[in-house]
Write a structure and sequence with these properties.
The protein is an alpha/beta fold. The strands form 2 sheets. Strands 1-2-3-4-7-8-9-10-11-12 form a 10-stranded mixed β-sheet, covered by helices on one side. The chain has a two-stranded antiparallel ribbon with strand order 5-6. The longest helix is centred in the middle third of the chain and has 18 residues. The structure holds S-adenosyl-L-homocysteine and iron/sulfur cluster. The site of S-adenosyl-L-homocysteine has 18 residues, from β8 and β10.
């Protein structure tokens, strides 16, 4: 797991560290700022393109990999508006990144780990197990790829740049908190990539320690929590993490988070036919959320996600009528609720479908 991380790439350094590195080579601080701009503003694809740097410095920099993500292929769906990149890491693991272009925005869905150790039964990534944590540079480089891709597409207007970033790719961000947070700070840096904190959303399986820690961070990024069930028995069946952090603890942490930050939290709820999509479960969910909400305006939002089929699971996708009925019940209980519009299903780029090249074998059970 630590092997590949020893090979630092240029995207693994923040501006202070780059300054330090270049200073150790006898370079003045402004050279580091030039390099940093090349990386995060100009989106240079290699050191040779950084023509404002002296040739000798470029030669030295070229010894450090720019990025340790090797782009293996890009799959295109939704008539070019959804693009999934498959990257190979130096140790052979693969990660995926998805870019979704809309008329008024462009969203990139970024991975934080290769594979995932959380074992949610409905998720393709979960079936891989955890291969390893990504370095901050490997997380950052995915957003850079998306920007470069948009630039190459020649997309105009707001959709011509990355306007939104969601940490909803492979992996559990809070299980790789330090490196993930370094990536957040670097992507946010107004002198660099300059992505607003409010434009970033982290999704967690419900690691309470991570929620508590996020509440203390200065950057107000958005928090989404994967809930997927209104009771512990079902949630533990779908998400093994629930045995460690059952619903009551998760809700207490969410409540404390809202009281500390006054920021809205959204809950993700993947709808599985006959499993968690019954009207009585919608009512139970509504009651649970009403009970858990702190005083004041309801800072909860529910995002219903139609399940994207994962081969080899005995699960099924809820019929549309059940999705809308579920949504109606939550709405009737006064809980704001939307249904996520899917992208990239045909190229297996949708939520929970990221599994690299790994063939998902069908094991009937
Ligand atoms: N590990 C984090 C973030 C990555 S998954 C988490 O679990 O929250 C992003 C979202 O996709 C989560 O809400 C997850 O539950 C959901 N998801 C996983 N598999 C899915 C599938 N097959 N179809 C739809 N959503 C899925
Ligand atoms: Fe991991 Fe999230 Fe998939 Fe669960 S849903 S296995 S936490 S990536």
């Amino acid at each position: 797991m630590h092997h590949a991380m020893e090979q630092r790439c240029l995207y693994d350094y923040n501006l202070t560290e780059l300054t330090e590195l270049l200073r150790s080579w006898g370079e003045p601080a402004f050279r580091a700022r030039q390099l940093y701009r090349q990386l995060y503003v100009n989106l240079a694809q290699n050191v040779a393109q950084m023509t404002d740097l002296p040739a000798a410095l470029r030669a030295r920099l070229a010894e450090i990999p720019l990025s340790t993500l090797h782009l293996e292929r890009v799959q295109i769906g939704d008539e070019g508006l959804t693009r999934k990149a498959l990257f190979r890491l130096p140790d052979g693991a693969v990660v995926e990144t998805v870019l979704m272009v809309y008329p008024d925005r462009s969203t990139v869905c970024v991975s934080t780990q290769a594979g995932c150790g959380m074992g949610c039964v409905f998720c393709a990534t979960g079936r891989l197990g955890l291969l390893r944590n990504l370095s901050s540079g490997e997380i950052v480089a995915q957003a850079i790829w998306a920007s470069q891709e948009l630039r190459a597409m020649g997309a105009a207007g707001p959709s011509g740049r990355v306007t939104n970033l969601v940490f909803m790719g492979m992996g559990e961000p809070f299980a790789n908190y330090d490196r993930w947070w370094q990536a957040v700070e670097r992507l946010h840096d107004p002198q660099g990539f300059n992505l607003g904190a409010r434009s970033m959303t982290v999704s967690t399986v419900g690691l309470v320690k991570g929620i508590e820690r996020l509440a203390t961070e200065k950057l107000p990024i958005n928090l989404a929590i994967s809930l997927h069930a209104p009771d512990d028995a079902l949630r533990s069946e779908l998400m093994p993490v629930n045995r460690r952090y059952p619903i009551a603890e998760l809700m207490a942490a969410t409540r404390a988070y809202i009281e500390q930050t006054r920021r809205r939290v959204s809950f993700e709820y993947v709808l599985l036919q006959g499993k968690n999509d019954h009207p009585h479960q919608a009512i139970a969910l509504a009651r649970l959320l009403r009970r858990a909400a702190p005083r004041g305006p309801l800072l909860f939002h529910v995002n219903l996600i139609p399940w994207n089929p994962v081969p080899g699971t005995p699960l099924g996708r809820s019929e549309w009528e059940r999705v809308t009925a579920f949504q109606q019940i939550l709405t009737d209980y006064g809980i704001p609720c939307t249904v996520r519009v899917e992208r990239g299903v045909e190229i297996a780029a949708a939520c929970g479908q990221l599994a690299g090249q790994q063939a998902l074998t069908v094991e009937p059970n």
